[in-house]
Amino acid sequence: MARFFGDNGKPDDTSLKDLLSPYEQHRSALTDCGKLSRSELLGQKAILIYGFEYEYMPLEPAIDAFETLARRCAQLGQRHTSVLENLVHPVHARGAVFGWELR
To answer: Counting Cβ atoms within 10 Å, is residue 94 exposed (0-12), middle (13-18) or buried (19+)?
Structure first.
């Protein structure tokens, strides 16, 4: 999950770590991507990130950074995006879901 604020509206200072940390103990989207691409699971594999954005903190720069780093450890397919709008949560009112097939 990518969100820059908690449910209470206070900044979440760990949000980028949750996406981009290269350290396994942080269990980030980046390390999940690497582990999944190296796994011997049969069938198609994909990574999915959902997140929330705010007027002055869009998701796009963080997702671009994820893609740049993830391409170092995995073969990402094309990005697929579905936008979320008019959500009822007072803090998380809009966002998106992003997905990539791992080749």
So the answer is: middle
Confirm if 3 and 51 have CB atoms less than 8 A apart.
yes
Backbone torsions φ then ψ of 42, nearest 5 degrees: -85, 155
User: Is residue 85 situated within a structural domain?
Assistant: yes
Q: DSSP 3-state assignment of 58?
A: coil
pLDDT of residue 78: 96
Mean of pLDDT values over 77-89: 95
**Residue range of the domain that includes 70:** 27-36+44-49+59-103
The answer to whether residue 21 scores a pLDDT higher than 90 is yes
102 confidence band (pLDDT: 50, 70, 90): very high
Q: How many domains does the chain have?
A: 1
Task: Please state the separation of Cα 84 from the chain's center in Å.
Answer: 14
Q: Is residue 78 part of a domain?
A: yes
